[in-house]
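Lab notebook, design round three. We kept the backbone fixed and only want residue identities now. Task for the bench partner: fill in a sequence for the structure below.
Input structure tokens:
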């Protein structure tokens, strides 16, 4: 039983490191297209 208490934190650490390493493959980043800023109104001449 004591062996499990020692091994479980190391196993969990390994799982967290593995998930962090492959996070980009599991959850690909959604890239937003760059949109050009268009003014809503015409510029007013003063």
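Proposed sequence:
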């Amino acid at each position: 039983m004591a062996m499990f208490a020692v091994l479980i934190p190391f196993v969990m650490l390994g799982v967290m490191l593995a998930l962090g390493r492959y996070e980009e493959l599991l959850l690909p980043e959604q890239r937003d297209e760059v949109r050009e800023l268009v003014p809503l109104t015409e510029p007013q001449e003063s």
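Keep this in mind before ordering anything: DSSP finds two helices and no strands in the chain.
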